[in-house]
Request: fold
Amino acid sequence: MTPRLWAVCALVVLLGALIAYAAATVPWHRAPHPRADQLAALDRLPSEQVARGRAFHGELRPGRYAGMLTGLILTLALGLTPLGARLVELAGRPFGDHWLARAVLGGLLVVLVLELASLPFAAWRHTVVVRYGLSVQSWGGWALDLLKSYAVGAVIGGIVLAGFFTVTHFAPRWWWAFGAAGAAVLVVLLSFVLPVLVEPVFNRFTPMAEGPLRTELLALADRDGVPVRDVLVADASRRTRAVNAYVSGLGPTRRIVVYDTMLTEATPDEVVSVAAHELGHAKDDDVLTGTIIGALGAAAAVVALYLLGGWSGLLRLAGTDTIGEPRAIGLLLVVSSVAGLVAGPAQAFVSRRIEARADIHALDLTGAPETFEAMQHRLGTVNLADPDPPSWEHTMFASHPSTVQRMAAARAYARGER
Ligand SMILES: [Zn+2]
Reply:
């Protein structure tokens, strides 16, 4: 059997495993959230709040889509013409055209060009979120965050580029096998490491202060049978008024994080309701599910890249001889952008189902649908959500059910509908 045939087999096995795992772990059944309840919930929201959320998203929309389109067109220009290959050659020139310099510096240069093109859209977005009072960040703070995220991206990107092209360099026929294994390991590793190494770059985390709320949250976790060593508070108020909470990490790095804005903006009962939702993610091992789906997807993507590398027309367009050499970086970005566009709505769908399950967990655990609804109302108000967004946009991009969907689910739950 040739490496190519083995790769086809590996791709079939990986995709099969991905589909089987997703079928077994994603909550396909979603609790009822009748449209009639959604409309009733929408009616109860203050009309000026609904109008403000809609106006805010209406202002963000043009820049958002223009930015996406610009990024896509530029990516296509870099990957489907020899432009990307030229940039990679340019970056390697001071280092005697060494393949490793081309791989790491060339890759980072191509990504930098894309980042610079997205900069005006990001800056414009910042002016909108500041004008609406959601962000409290100065331009200096905004720029510092941006530089930090470039630095984190450069470190992770540098490791990925060096690893990938080392494997393609030394194993030109079998790189897809090593690369697929490496990609899967990297996804798992990042799940463990990101919360511990990267999140503190942007925020300071402190254990929630002793007091009735902390006691109640730990008791809630205990009642739920979820081992939680600590509840952390992030100093999000440095940059935003938005409220949020999340669970990240795996095993010993698992933590429940509450924004400090949550503690000032929401009532203790609402914080408990949010924490109960987060405990649902912990109890159902949603981070682990996401990590395994991500690892299988990343491995499949590497094998698919190898197989695509047999398409000589594509290589000719990109001005490269093989897909395993650094000059193909632009082409690799085209493939991953297109794959991301296709996979995005599927990912969003899976995410919404998982979020809806965590909502039901919160309702089960607290037995307080009214508080849950009040909490959704609060989240929507403070975060300037569009409570009932256009359905096409929701389907394509939303990671969570909409505010009115979540309120409707609580109403249906209160009536005993499951
Ligand atoms: Zn959630």
Notes: The mean pLDDT is 94.
